[in-house]
Amino acid sequence: MRKTLLILPVLAIAACQPAVPNSGPGVGFGDYRDYLSQREAALQGQRPAPAAPQMQAANAGAVRLDSLGATLPPRSGEAQNAPMNAMGAAVAPAPVQSGPSAVAQANAAPLPRDSSGAVISDENNFDAVASRETIASDKARMEANRAAYQQIQPGALPPRSGDTGPNLAAYALQATNRLGEPVWKRGGLSLSNHTRACAKFTSLDQAQIAFLNRGGPQKDPGNLDPDGDGFACFWDPTPFQAARQ
Running DSSP on this structure, what letter comes out for residue 64? Predict the structure, then answer.
């Protein structure tokens, strides 16, 4: 009598547990042992590898199962019909390609290239430009650019504020002689060497500024302008005069 009372609770607990699904059969196999035997044969090179079994739900898509075979709710953000692997875990779906399809990209015309293989840009591609431009359109564009062209005449140099030293541009524009044409008298005897005196400056502009600061062009105590043309160390005013023209 006591043994019978002990068996009844055990049977009641067993009736409450969910049925464990049959894990023996697989997709394409009588049972899982057939899949393992074919996989072993494939590893030994005797036959092609079999496809891994997939668990798919019949109606509502793939589901996840716990260790007792009970259905688990879908994860957050997971679709109800997501594919499952052999262990019952959801498999991420393949990403959907956006933009032009792969077929359209494959059938697209190849990019034009030059003899070296470099891609020719659209504006340098004669065929592309000729397809949308004509001689008449080129003429109209040139006339529009010519009408919009504005020529600005140079004006007087603005005065500088404060004592900033000699203005080389103004001095060059006021000069009436050329380089090497003597204008100012120089003494025949000099206490310094002309080549050594000019070598002290990093540029001809610096030499001309020092020459004007020390009394030039009338005076030349540093022997920077021995020919008396008013230009120290062969400084040339021509570039400033050409810019005005």
Answer: E
User: H or E element: which one contains 71?
Assistant: strand 71-72
Give the pLDDT mean for 112-121. 82
Q: How many domains does the chain have?
A: 1
pLDDT tens-digit readout, 55-97: 444 444 455 666 555 666 666 555 555 556 555 555 555 555 5
CA distances from 119 to 104, 146, 212 (A): 20, 33, 58
**pLDDT over 70, % of the chain:** 57
Give the separation between CA 191 and CA 214, rounded to whole angstroms: 16
Cβ burial of 235 (10 Å; 0-12, 13-18, 19+) is buried
Which run of H or E residues covers position 37? Answer: helix 32-43
Domain membership flag for residue 70: no
| Domain contains 172 | yes
For the stretch 26-39, pLDDT in tens is: 445 456 777 777 77
Question: Element (H or E) spanning 72, and its range?
Answer: strand 71-72
Domain that holds residue 229: 168-244
Bridge partners, 64 (sequence order)? 72
**What is the spatial distance between Cα 84 and Cα 245, in angstroms, rounded to a whole number?**
84
Distance CA(88)–CA(232), nearest Å, equals: 94
Mean pLDDT, all residues of the chain: 74
Q: Would you say residue 182 lies in a domain?
A: yes
Report the alpha-carbon angle 101-107-113, nearest 5. Answer: 120
